[in-house]
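Figure 6 in text form: structure in, sequence out.
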């Protein structure tokens, strides 16, 4: 039986399932298959981005599942993101309309500013997310970008807006200076970087935390074990907790992140793991087990955006 994730009510009244499917690197046929399998497994929250170059596939998979009668559009919560190259307020409407057309599912549930950092517009062809070249920066203020995003809400084609990769000061500035509060701040969050401080800070502002790379991108460690911290996935302490609940280490990590109050969006294109990752709502970690999981926190990022370190709005110079 498919397991559904509970929902959280966002600060604008909309409801968001507290676990979703991440789709970075789910491309073409693999992306379509992963999203369809996820919907069959009970996922109702899918996270994509213009940058991921798979909005069309995500949309196609959702439309096919609607056509099969498995879901209705309103059952789904779909997030996509405004890329850094399109922060100029004049570009926001077109950037949004491109995502809307790519997805082709009538409306978008949540539109996020992918980061506070603005890059020079190069083209509407989303860049290769793995490109090693340094982008050309611009100093468009993310507050101006946000104000242009607020205007999208009146068009009825997006239900909620939020931010991603913002630090506490940047979130606070939006809340203080703008009309609409972000419903969420989507940030890297996993046992190695558990974001307890940012989560607490944002909670006071009624802004949720969505956890990307919740499993700590295990393939980064596999490629470069000398420089990348070992993810909790491979640790004996996590294996022991998993054994107690007849769960896998991945499930224990995702449960931990839910217990911390975050909304994880694990990526998987593997049928078995994808099913496991949503099957975490029938157990809960004890306080002692949460303390064990807290030991992994080393504040190290697997996604530090090193290439953008000199950007005026680079978010990771302060503690959180
Ligand atoms: P796969 O797609 O083959 O399942 P993150 O969400 O932290 O970025 O991690 C995504 C990576 O972790 C993907 O490579 C994914 O591979 C793998 N993964 C997803 N779910 C699990 C799991 N439950 N256990 C171990 N690895 C997982």
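Output sequence:
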């Amino acid at each position: 039986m498919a397991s559904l994730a509970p929902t959280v009510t966002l600060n604008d009244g909309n409801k968001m399932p507290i676990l979703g499917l991440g789709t970075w690197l789910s491309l073409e046929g693999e992306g379509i298959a992963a999203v369809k399998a996820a919907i069959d497994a009970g996922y109702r929250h899918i996270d994509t981005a213009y940058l991921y170059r798979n909005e069309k596939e995500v949309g196609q998979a959702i439309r096919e599942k609607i056509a099969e009668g498995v879901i209705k559009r309103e059952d789904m919560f779909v997030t996509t993101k405004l890329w850094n190259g399109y922060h100029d307020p004049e570009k926001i409407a077109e950037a949004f309309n491109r995502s809307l057309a790519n997805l082709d599912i009538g409306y978008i549930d949540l539109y996020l500013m992918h980061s506070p950092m603005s890059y020079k517009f190069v083209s509407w062809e989303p860049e290769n997310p793995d490109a090693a070249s340094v982008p050309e920066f611009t100093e468009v203020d993310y507050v101006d970008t946000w104000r242009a995003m607020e205007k999208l809400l009146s068009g009825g084609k997006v239900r909620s807006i939020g931010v991603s990769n913002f630090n506490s000061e940047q979130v606070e500035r939006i809340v203080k200076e703008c009309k609409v509060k972000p419903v969420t701040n989507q940030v890297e969050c996993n046992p190695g970087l558990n974001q307890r401080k940012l989560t607490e800070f944002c909670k006071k502002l009624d802004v949720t935390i969505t956890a990307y790379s919740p499993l700590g991108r295990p393939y980064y460690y596999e490629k470069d074990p000398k420089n990348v911290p070992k993810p909790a996935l491979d640790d004996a302490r996590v294996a022991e907790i998993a054994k107690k609940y007849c769960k896998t280490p991945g499930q224990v990590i995702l449960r931990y992140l839910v217990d911390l109050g975050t909304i994880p969006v694990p990526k998987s294109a593997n049928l078995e793991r994808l099913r496991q990752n949503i099957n975490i709502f029938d157990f809960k970690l004890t306080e002692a087990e949460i303390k064990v999981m807290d030991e992994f926190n080393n504040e190290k990022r697997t996604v530090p955006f090193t290439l953008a370190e000199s950007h005026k709005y680079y978010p990771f110079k302060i503690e959180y």
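Caption detail: The mean pLDDT is 95.
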